[in-house]
Design goal:
The protein is an alpha/beta fold. The chain is 34% helix and 23% strand. The chain has 12 helices and 15 strands. It has helices spanning 10-17, 40-53, 69-74, 90-111, 130-138, 147-164, 192-197, 212-222, 271-274, 284-289, 292-296, 318-321; strands at 4-5, 24-25, 29-34, 57-62, 83-86, 117-122, 169-173, 175-177, 186-188, 200-208, 231-241, 249-254, 298-302, 307-310, 325-328.
């Protein structure tokens, strides 16, 4: 693995790789699985945005007809360096990937390097087989038993070339509930082909994001004061990982502002592991009662302007600074 592409969320990076700054490896297959609305396409585009910063050209294979330049632009992706390929069948997708990898190999052989690309398939579950396509045209309603075999062939044909050329393959996939299971269990669509060839499988689910500031922005956009959905809180857990032990984390997808990459890290922070000595919080009244010597050595932390000031505070208004954290040395 030569490079790792981040996700845009530090806590999600850590859950996927064990490192705050790495998420998906080059040359491997990564699966983003979950129900509709769980943030799979959002996260796939986030990987594309971060990959572009590293010099990659994302090739987005869309089987759902849901991706366009305006959508990816809203997520921070540069549409001028973003290729959208409409695909319908498994065989068509496999052939396109194989031909692209063959062209990259020719570049490698001739110039000693090749163009940096990543593949995204959105989604595997919506691809059809050639037999299913032909049966539909012929009015044949027999059950298609070839789809799982074609998916296995897709990975058999391309897995080695993906690894050799260090090309990441991000697969967005649907899940369905196992019928008759004693404990409700989600199963990946597509059979064992994606299950065994994916180096990292991330299962995602979503709930409503509660954010008062975001609610106000959403209300003003949609002209409603109540019942406005402002975003989702995504729970992500690697159900398979060859890089790190599976650990469930949460991150936010707000609709009316950029996601905060630091959200989620607070659950893992303590005074001990942060390297910050916990100080004494005192009020303005207490501050006015301490000696002049102590006032000279108090450190004032201004949270709003993200700065530290070590100086006298006498005469400073609490309205000016709003929140004080004062530490006596």
């Amino acid at each position: 693995i030569k490079e790792w592409i981040p996700s845009g969320s530090y806590v999600l990076n850590a859950a996927m790789s064990g490192d705050l700054f790495k998420a998906i490896p080059t040359g491997r297959v990564v699966t983003l699985a979950g129900d509709s609305g769980a943030g799979k396409s959002f996260l796939a585009c986030s990987f594309c945005r971060e990959a572009q910063k590293m010099g990659y050209t994302p090739i987005y294979m869309d089987s759902e007809g849901a991706i366009d330049s305006k959508f990816v632009s809203r997520l921070g992706v540069n549409p001028s360096n973003f290729i959208i390929k409409q695909v319908s069948t498994i065989a068509e997708t496999s052939q396109f990937i194989a031909n692209t990898l063959d062209a990259l190999q020719k570049q490698e052989d001739e110039y000693g390097k090749h163009q940096k690309v990543i593949f995204v398939l959105d989604s595997l579950g919506n691809l059809t087989s050639d037999k299913e396509m032909q049966d539909t045209k012929d009015g044949n309603n027999k059950r298609d038993m070839t789809k799982a075999q074609e998916i296995k062939a897709l990975f058999r044909v391309n897995a080695t070339a993906l690894a050799r050329l260090q090309v990441s393959f991000i697969v967005v996939n649907h899940v369905y509930c196992a019928v008759g299971a004693y404990v409700p269990t989600n199963i990946l669509s597509g059979g064992s082909g994606i299950k065994y060839n994916s180096s990292l499988t991330l299962e995602m689910s979503a709930s409503k994001l509660d954010d008062k500031d975001n609610d106000k922005a959403a209300s003003s956009k949609q002209g409603s004061d109540t019942g406005t959905k402002t975003g989702v809180l995504v729970t992500a857990k690697p159900i398979k990982s060859r890089f790190w032990r599976p650990y469930k984390v949460k991150f936010q997808i707000p609709y009316w502002k950029a996601p905060n990459p630091y959200v989620g890290l607070e659950a893992f922070m303590t005074w001990e592991n942060s390297g910050v000595i916990r100080g004494n919080l005192i009020s303005e009244k207490d501050y006015n009662n301490i000696s002049e010597l102590e006032k000279d050595i108090i450190e004032y932390i201004d949270y709003y302007n993200n700065r530290r000031i070590k100086s006298k505070l006498k005469g400073m208004s609490p309205v000016q600074y709003r929140i004080h954290s004062l530490k006596v040395a």
